[in-house]
Amino acid sequence: MTPATKKPGAGAPGADKKAGKAMSNDIIQQVGGELRVSSETIAQRTEVEHRAVLQLVSTHDVALRSFGPVAFEMRPLPGGGNPVRVAHLNEPQATLLMTFMRNSVVVVDFKVELVAQFYRMRRELAGQVDLPRSLPDALRAYAMEVEKSAALEAKVQEDAPKMEAFEQFLGAAGDLDLRETAQSLDLGRTRLADFLRRQGFFSPGSTTPYQRFVDRGWFRPVTRVSQRPEGPKAYQVTLVTPAGREAIRERLEATRSNLVAVV
Description:
Antirepressor protein C-terminal domain-containing protein; elongated; 263 residues; alpha+beta; DNA binding; 3-stranded antiparallel β-sheet; 2 domains
């Protein structure tokens, strides 16, 4: 059954206006009256295939459900076709799931943003619910938060051995940057970039692939943002897909055998 999904604060006219700014974020949603983040959002923001995120949810289903039911919906595609299965995770579930993802720059940045968004949304919603009105009530609420945190930490420790296996899965199924690709091929990043330029994959003097190889699904240019003292700065990174890594591996082998084909 498709869960009711809405942004916090949505509803009849006259809803709490002071939460307006926070309610406009596109990361956290209310599903069944609970703040959640979708598997699609996690996949997009961590630059991992959605199917890989769903597989991670399935692999750790028991651990995730110890923090409540995992909500699912079948989301229809705008152009028709088979609907997409989407998971919706609450805060402890999302936090636990993120511990099993490789700590790339993108993943770490999203972890920080996710924690901040959940925190902000809880504070915004606090103005719409009853707050503790006495010291005993506040202490009980604090004790519940500590208990949840301890339970989450215990789950992280229990499932820690599974992290390496999932990292290997992501490395095999997902896109890698040039450094990671070079490591998988037992090369240095500079040497790999020089090789790709000589072989005609990249334009001269850059790590930007020619469009025809992007169209083949071998490379995926993405834009990332780094935080600098003078402000955020966007830069482009070239990711290599599994098909691209296989093509590079074949070209390397052909080069070693003096059987290089014309691109």
